[in-house]
Design a protein that fits this description.
The complex is a heterodimer of chains A (about 260) and B (about 160). With about 260 residues, chain A is α+β, with helices and mostly antiparallel strands. Helices cover about 30% and strands about 15% of the residues of chain A. In chain B, strand 3 and strand 4 form a beta hairpin. Chain B is an alpha+beta fold and about 160 residues long. Chain B has 4 helices and 6 strands. Chain B has 2 domains: about 110 residues, 2-Layer Sandwich (Alpha-Beta Plaits); about 45 residues, no CATH class. Chains A and B meet through loops of A and loops of B.
């Protein structure tokens, strides 16, 4: 029988969603054009050539190396692209993908990338044409709700703050706005430089939908072990696994000689 | 506005579940102010910078954060934060119900009101550095900004070097 990765334990909807994100088996909800993604990322003008840091690998004459023969370079690496990044801030108010699960998704599903997880934001670095493709997958799929997840290269504050009146995540640079047609528009790129034309990022999810699609455990939605006020809490299998890993790691790490 | 009263003042915090837009904050504060009995008002929330503070876009003006004014009575002040909490000092505990009624009328989402000690009663180090050990008007305690910058916050009206 072929091996099938299990990725994550737990029977709650949060566990199911975490497995979906890690496996890359994501539902596509919208289609943002490549040019729009490039515009929001702000590293190059849409349609312009990719600047490079070295000649294409085919022209460089690589050394005789078994690993290089074994591993096929990504399109960006083969062309000698620069390393570029995209960074997302996801609200703790039931954003679909909390930072660690963007990283798991990146590490498992994206070749040649370097995911970095921070408390309220998540960055993925890769060769330019690769990161553009990875960013498109994130923005088009259920990993992103345009109201609760924004591409923010700097001044990322917002993950743990209350939402605005209109349900948008707080952004001190006002990179996104809720249009009168109900769509969320990027009016600035990820570092806060105003765009020539607004970019439509799609409609925000309803509260019911974000509660269903989120990967964050919350007491007011799906909690680790039932209501916080319950006399006896039954912990989700995901948390039991986490405790198990933590215990083993602590014990193995503790080696008094 | 300072109101003299025989009753003991109370301090309360209004904590809405969502951040308030400037227009909502203006309407809410207007109503609270009109209900009377206010000794002090402070608005707290995350900073809204006027320019991009970091990164490749550093220094670019943020138009959305410009020219936001709050008008209360005959005073106007520039709104520099997203309104997240409103701290009030009321002349007596009886006024709390009125504030609660205003919030229920004006805010389209849940909120909480808590009574607690909010404003400072003792001088901070910054207060001491500015005013010395004796501060007559206790209402200004805690209002000194230690991060104030000379270039931004100091207006030099004369370059003659004073009277000496």
């Amino acid at each position: 029988m072929a091996y099938k990765p299990q990725y994550y334990s737990g029977t709650t909807s949060v566990g199911v969603n975490r497995r979906k994100h890690m496996s890359g088996d994501l539902e596509k909800l919208r289609d943002i054009s490549d040019a729009d993604i490039v515009t929001i990322m702000g590293h190059r003008a849409p349609g312009s050539d990719y600047p490079s840091t070295h000649p294409p690998l085919a022209e460089m004459g690589e050394p005789d190396c078994p690993i290089r023969q074994l591993v096929e370079p990504t399109p960006g690496a083969a062309a000698g692209d620069r390393i570029r990044y995209s960074q997302f801030t996801d609200s703790m108010y039931n954003a679909p993908s909390i930072p660690y699960f963007r990283s798991y998704w990146g590490a498992i599903n994206c070749r040649g990338c370097d995911p970095g997880t921070l408390s309220g934001r998540q960055i993925i670095e890769a060769r330019e044409r690769d990161i553009e493709q990875y960013t498109k997958v994130q923005m088009d799929s259920e990993m992103t709700d345009p109201a609760l997840a924004t591409m923010r290269g700097c001044t990322v504050h917002g993950h743990s703050l209350r939402l605005d009146e209109d349900g948008m995540m707080f952004d001190m640079l006002s990179r996104t706005e809720l249009g009168s047609d109900g769509n969320v528009y990027y009016v600035k790129d990820q570092v806060g430089i105003p765009l020539d034309a607004k970019v439509n990022a799609g409609k925000p999810m309803s509260e019911a939908e974000t509660s269903k699609r989120t990967t964050i455990f919350r007491c007011d939605n799906i909690s680790f072990g039932g209501p916080c006020t319950a006399e006896k809490r039954t912990l989700d299998e995901g948390l039991i696994t986490l405790h198990h890993m933590w215990e083993r790691r602590s014990k193995w790490g503790f080696r008094p000689e | 506005m300072v109101t003299k009263s025989d009753t003991k003042p109370v301090q309360i915090e209004i904590f809405p579940r969502r951040f308030l837009k400037p227009a909502t904050a203006q309407r809410l504060l207007d109503e609270i102010y009109r209900s009377g009995g206010i000794l002090r008002i402070t608005i707290q929330g995350p900073n809204l910078p006027k320019t991009v503070p970091y990164g490749p876009g550093k220094g670019i003006p943020i138009e959305e954060n410009m020219n936001m004014l709050l008008e209360l009575g005959d005073q106007a002040l520039e709104l520099r934060v997203k309104v997240g909490r409103i701290w009030l000092e009321l002349e007596s505990e009886d006024r709390i119900e009125g504030v609660k009624a205003v919030c229920e009328r004006m805010l389209p989402f849940p909120f909480s009101i808590k009574k607690k000690q909010i404003f400072r009663t003792k001088p901070t180090v910054s207060d001491y550095a500015k005013y010395g050990s004796e501060v007559e008007d206790k209402r200004i305690l805690g209002l000194v900004d230690p991060k104030a910058m000379k270039e931004r916050d100091l207006a030099i009206l004369s370059d003659t070097g004073g009277d000496s």
